[in-house]
Design goal:
- The complex is a heterodimer.
- By secondary structure, chain A is α+β, with helices and mostly antiparallel strands.
- Chain A contains 22 helices and 22 strands.
- In chain A, a hairpin with a 3-residue loop joins strand 10 and strand 11.
- In chain A, helix 1 packs antiparallel against helix 2 and helix 4 packs antiparallel against helix 5.
- The longest helix of chain A is centred in the middle third of the chain and has 32 residues.
- The two termini of chain A are 57 Å apart.
- Helices cover 13% and strands 36% of the residues of chain B.
- Chain B has a six-stranded mixed sheet with strand order 8-1-2-11-10-9. A five-stranded mixed sheet of chain B has the order 3-6-7-5-4, with no helix packed on it.
- In chain B, a hairpin with a 2-residue loop joins strand 4 and strand 5.
- Chain B has one domain: CheA-289, Domain 4 (OB fold (Dihydrolipoamide Acetyltransferase, E2P), Beta Barrel).
- Chain B is built from three helices and eleven strands; from the N terminus they run H-H-E-E-E-E-E-E-E-E-E-E-E-H.
- The chains are: A alpha+beta, B mainly beta.
- The interface between A and B is medium-sized, with 29 and 23 residues.
């Protein structure tokens, strides 16, 4: 890779992460549409846009950088309360995210399409035009807060805005005062913040007037609590924090009476200190900067100054000295103004290392080779142990086999660790899909509630990547074909909004992901008609099909139940593609549907494809490997136990009929006379199949290598592996074999 | 014959080994009476299939290896002999004789019933658009340098319906059938 290419890859990786974070916050905002927006999320988006601007600037990605700049402006106005977060703004932000993703896509291919450039410029204009100021308020709620003006003076515009919001919403405000030792105050403060975070919002952190002892430092945290006083107290037990409520006047005009006894008003000397503090604090937006002359004793009247463009408010009546004397920095012990915890260390915040999946693949392959060497060692140890003629050799053999067992254990640990490193939560895909749902629903004119669960279930990174397209397609289907429009739903006696669910669940060695809706369900009569009219099945076949088999016809190539191709689902990609994609992951798909109740697709997938334990079997002198995660049991069967039902061979397994497939016959291998078969019973989801083989050779851990592009059309084989001694052994694709077994059953008619 | 003897045997020159291509190559380089036209000769790898001599551009050959154990792929197209493991890499191995109509049935070279491969047989690993692929040849003849003037583009439809013969090269009395690897291996 060229250095430029490498830098680009870095940029794309980093930018993708930022966009992911941005998307998550945006989604959270979207879910809380119509409610009070969580400032954390707005801040998160703001930070993401800011980082993206910096990053893209660094890499010379002009278009992304400019759009990020526009987005940052918009978000800054939002965050400072100059703009309210209404649907229009939210939609713009969601569209902006799409545009970012498209831009990033072009950047990664080093293209610069004119269409997208135009779209970017339109987007920038759109963001700039948004700007209805928030509804004017009668009185600045901040004025109702009994807070010393000198304290207010040191707030940044943002902190002031947040405080105002909290007062307006009637949130209980507290002053949390805590003293820490100078040596580890950053840690103590971080700990305190972590405890407070879940309970509400830390609006500002100020150095306290109260000296924290000879080697200490005290802080006042202005905190808006979501919980009751006793809960807050309980949460802070064990920390040096002291709580004091901040009084808020009721929002009636003209009753500025203080409610508590007040400490003496701050002296002029202290205010001077506060001014110095302000001057030092230049990296923050400071609307008040320089507004008060240093040393002036009248600073009480000069602050705060309304910044240009901020909502109109009455500022003249600063409350005449207040209850809770939050005296700002009477004796600020540290010179650099308010300490910012996050700046005390340059160490990065995460412990994560980003690794190319290709490297992990390489390591996994290496482990595979090591496992082969281990197997050879074991064999050596075994032979020399049994070779009992020489006493020395026997002793040596025992020693060797002991060491080999040690090696085996360590290798297993190594393998496990590597596999774990490849695991990522499926939530990564779910988040992306959740964003899509909104867009699709809007385009389709449906009202959808999207519910996802099990995002924490982990799958191999490669599988998760490959999953996103099939899942997207299924969700599109659910919204476009499954869910009815609001009116149709109401008349059917259902709630107006349709529910689309995405759920992941671990089941043993597999993960089951389901996409379901509570829509109209699949009309199997219609399915039958379409399948017949397209010539996909014959009338005689159809007449014998069960409902489930009929439903499964939708996976046949060339099937689409809608006569009019919609712009959403009907993009020429059918469910057969979804099914194929899953097949490549050794997974299977199953459909359930009930008229009027809804449809559900269940995807059963292996947790990993990298290293699997396999059963090594022999058929007509050939050797094959069967992944053990889909093997349910192994039977030994006499030829006379095999029955035929309508010319098809089946087995009777504890009263259940089990479809039976002779692997040799399926693969057109020369058949050998055997007096008994071994039947490997495989199963995925609800499907079961007995595969007859001649011999069983045992179990082995294998690294499956795909057969590659030239051989991708080969059926029933998922790849090949090496069992030592340089013999290449094919790995059976259980999902495909099951498929063929079922298809044979269908064909019998 | 022990394994070591077999290895040595494979290493040393055997009198019965076909090195015609090499001799041709040597003869060509000795021939100074070439036309003054400054032609860049192109190097080809020459090999034998049945009784005929074929050649592919040497730049399309990644390597030449002895015939390893081949694993047959069930239900594959007949010209796919099987897969081989080349230093951990999985490669498909093809037979082109079927396509060139040099034989009617694919040879039985993979699986438990296959005999030992002929001693001179080799697998050419060719670079193709779909990734590397092995091609079974009966023996490797050597490298031959052919100038464009020595190559005659083959009349369309010389052999088979898919035109995998790119042309004919003539050097001295020897005729080389130039194979188009992409065409020869296309499904």
């Amino acid at each position: 890779m060229t250095p430029g290419g490498k830098a680009l890859a870095e940029f794309v990786a980093e930018a993708t992460e930022i966009l992911d974070a941005l998307g998550r916050d945006l989604l959270a905002l979207d879910e809380a549409r119509g409610q009070e927006a969580d400032p954390e999320h707005i801040n998160g988006i703001f930070r993401a846009a800011h980082s993206l601007k910096g990053l893209s600037g660094l890499f010379g990605q002009e278009r992304i950088s400019q759009l990020a700049h526009a987005a940052e402006d918009l978000l800054d106005r939002l965050r400072l309360g100059r703009l309210t977060l209404d649907d229009q703004v939210l939609d713009t932000l969601v569209d902006a995210l799409d545009t970012f993703q498209a831009l990033l896509g072009e950047a990664s291919r080093t293209e610069e399409g004119a269409d997208l450039s135009q779209r970017t410029r339109d987007m920038e204009d759109r963001m700039a035009r948004l700007g209805s100021p928030p509804p004017a308020v009668e009185e600045d709620p901040l004025e109702r807060l009994e807070l010393d003006a000198t304290v207010r003076a040191v707030f940044t515009e943002y902190e002031e805005h947040r405080l105002r919001e909290n007062v307006r919403r009637g949130v209980a405000l507290w002053r949390v005062r805590a003293a820490f030792d100078l040596t580890d105050f950053d840690q103590g403060l971080a700990d305190l913040n972590a405890r407070l975070k879940p309970l509400g919002e830390v609006i500002s952190t100020l150095p306290s007037s109260r000296p924290g002892g000879s080697t200490g430092i005290a802080f006042d945290l202005i905190f808006g609590a979501k919980v009751a006083a006793h809960a807050l107290e309980a949460a802070l037990r064990g920390t040096p924090a002291e709580l004091a409520p901040l009084a808020v006047r009721p929002p009636v005009e003209g009753s500025p009476g203080p409610a508590f006894d007040m400490p003496p008003p701050p002296s002029g000397r202290e205010e001077t200190d506060a001014e110095l503090l302000l001057a030092a604090d230049t990296d923050e937006e400071e609307p008040d900067e320089g507004s008060a002359p240093p040393g002036g004793s009248t600073s009480l009247a000069t602050v705060p100054v309304t910044p240009v463009g901020s909502p109109p408010r009455m500022r003249a009546v600063a409350p005449p000295s207040t209850v809770v004397g939050l005296q700002a920095a009477a004796s600020a012990p540290i010179p650099a103004g308010r300490p910012k915890v996050e700046e005390t260390s340059l160490r990065s915040l995460t412990q994560t290392v980003r690794v190319d999946i290709g490297r992990l693949d390489g390591l996994i392959n290496m482990v595979g080779e090591l496992l082969l060497i281990k197997a050879n060692l074991q064999r050596l140890a075994e032979t020399s142990r049994q070779d009992g003629t020489v006493a020395l050799s026997k002793l040596f053999g025992q020693e060797l086999s002991r060491e080999t067992r040690q090696l085996e254990r360590k290798l297993e640990a190594l393998q496990e660790g590597l596999l774990e490193a490849r695991m990522v939560p499926v939530g990564q895909v779910f988040d992306k899909l959740a964003r899509l749902v909104r867009k699709i629903a809007r385009e389709a004119g449906k009202e959808i509630d999207f519910v996802s669960s099990g995002g924490e279930v982990e799958l191999d990174k490669l599988i998760v990547e490959e999953l996103s397209d099939p899942l997207m397609h299924l969700i599109r289907n659910a919204i476009d074909h499954g869910a009815e429009g609001p009116e149709a739903r109401l008349s059917a006696g259902k709630p107006r909004r349709a529910v689309v669910r995405l759920r992941a669940e671990q089941k043993g060695n597999h993960v089951v992901i389901s996409v379901s809706d509570d829509g109209s369900g699949i009309d199997e009569v219609r399915v039958r008609e379409v399948a017949l009219s397209r010539g996909l099945v014959t009338p005689s076949q159809v007449s014998e099909m069960t409902r489930r088999e009929l439903l499964n016809l939708i996976f046949l190539p060339g099937f689409s139940t809608r006569s009019s191709v919609s712009s959403l689902s009907g993009r020429g990609v059918g469910l057969d593609v979804v099914k194929n994609n899953l097949g490549n992951l050794s997974g299977i798909i199953d459909v359930w549907s009930e008229r009027g109740k809804g449809t559900a697709f269940h995807l059963t997938l292996p947790v990993t494809l990298a290293i699997v334990r396999a059963l090594v079997v022999g058929v007509s002198g050939r050797t094959y490997a069967v992944p053990l995660n889909s093997v349910l049991e192994i039977l030994s069967v006499q030829p006379r136990d095999i029955r035929t039902v309508e010319r098809r061979e089946v087995l009777d397994l504890r009263g259940q009929t089990l479809p039976f497939l002779r692997l040799g016959r399926l693969f057109h291998l020369p058949e050998r006379e055997v007096n008994r078969h071994f039947v490997v019973v495989v199963g995925l989801a609800q499907q079961r199949l007995g595969i007859a083989v001649d011999e069983l050779f045992g179990q082995q851990d294998i690294v499956t290598k795909p057969l590659g592009g030239r051989l991708s059309r080969v059926k029933g084989i998922s790849g090949a592996t090496d069992l030592g001694n340089r013999r290449t052994v094919l790995v059976l694709d259980v999902a495909e074999l099951l498929e063929e077994g079922i298809a044979q059953e269908r064909r019998r008619a | 014959m022990s394994r070591f003897e077999a290895l040595l045997d494979a290493f040393f020159y055997r009198p019965d080994e076909d090195v015609g291509g090499l001799l041709d190559f040597a003869a060509g380089s000795d021939d100074l009476a070439q036309p003054l036209l400054e032609e860049e000769p192109v190097e080809y790898l020459a090999f034998r299939l049945e009784a005929e001599c074929y050649a592919v551009p040497i730049l399309s050959v990644r390597e030449i290896c002895k015939v390893p154990l081949l694993t047959e792929i069930p239900r594959a197209e007949p010209q796919l002999l099987g897969v081989m493991n080349l230093r951990g890499e999985l490669l498909p191995v093809y037979d082109v004789k079927l396509r060139l109509r040099l034989s009617e049935v694919p040879p039985l070279v993979a699986g438990p019933d296959a005999g030992l491969p002929p001693r001179a047989a080799r697998i050419l690993v060719l670079k193709t658009d779909d990734g590397p692929a092995g091609v079974w040849v009966d023996s490797v003849a050597g490298v031959v340098r052919l100038k464009p003037s020595m190559v005659e583009l083959s009349p369309a439809g010389l052999r088979g319906d898919r035109d995998c013969v790119a042309g004919l090269g003539r050097k001295g009395s020897q005729l080389y059938i130039l194979l188009d690897p992409e065409q020869a291996l296309s499904p």
